[in-house]
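Sorry to interrupt, but I need a hand with the structure work. Go ahead and set the record down below:
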Amino acid sequence: MRKKRILFMSDRIGYFTRELLRGIIDVSKEREWWDVWTSPAVSERQQLEKLVARGGISGVIARGVAADTLVYLRQLGVPVVELRGPAGFVSEEQIGPHADDYAVGQIAASEFQRLGVLSAGYVHWEGVLWSKQRGDAFTESINWGGCEWLRLEPEESTGWTAIEKIADWLESKTKPIGVLGCCDQVGLAVLQACVLINARVPEEVAVIGVDNDVLACDFASPALSSIDLNPIDIGRAAAIHLARRLDLTRVPREEEVRPPYLVARGSSHRVDRYLQIYQSALYWMDQNALRGASVSEVATACGYSRRGLERAFGKHAGTSPGHVLRDIKTQAIIKLLQTQNLPLEKIAAQSGFPDASSLGQFIKRQTGKSPGELRQLDH
């Protein structure tokens, strides 16, 4: 049978979108349901018809695509899972998993209140739905005072223009102030604006971004605190959602999307070095859960010594990095067992084991149950 082909369309290609796509591709590798094509947000109807017909497109996962484009795709008979609907566009048939923007606002407000800042501010991208939703939730959640918004129009939302505008806005604000940027790109611009006005971070201006683009956040000065949205989970959930609509799976439940969480770094907290090591290593372990990496490999990948890694985990996890590695791998394998109907030999290969017997021994040792028993627990 010919493998199906699906299309991923997005109005933006940034960190969040790439991680969404990673989740979608992860599912396609595990299940072998389809090939994935990517495309910018096409709006021309003639182009859409050609793309669907000549490309043999069976379904679409879309982010930030215009409402009339989504409607037209449906008229062409193409199932669509919409990850981020345009403002004012609601269709239960098409809405799929998405980031919890209300939780983003709550997390940032709660953290700034805990830090004891005197005022709060939000830097917003005008005309972007998710930015507005995060800002509204942030403002509603602040119960110690108001929240002032800086609204950046599309033509001034990036680059030097944005930095200067943020600097002018910040200079007159009561300090210490907590500033939430609608995304990491904005959070980084706030840090650069603080340099222009000689504002001390985090003492005078505490900054939190959204997305947790680890490379960009870790190498900022100071490192940018950020709220992680778990975009890989969202991409995986979208893929399962579309697969059900294409009758490729009968799994009734949604793929789990873990809630957003704050990764604290130097832009909002006086973070001790071992906490930064712990957070960085934990993120790497989670992203590489099935690799079967050693503690030394984790240390090398994160740029730390093995001794430093062990001290960080002893302080912040109360256990060894090896123990955490095994726990994370075990949970990832259990998830594969309970959400997929793949044979054990294939799951063993994905998990770095030479055969199904070795996988079974590892799972039995870790959980006290066989792979078959764990599969039964989910039914």
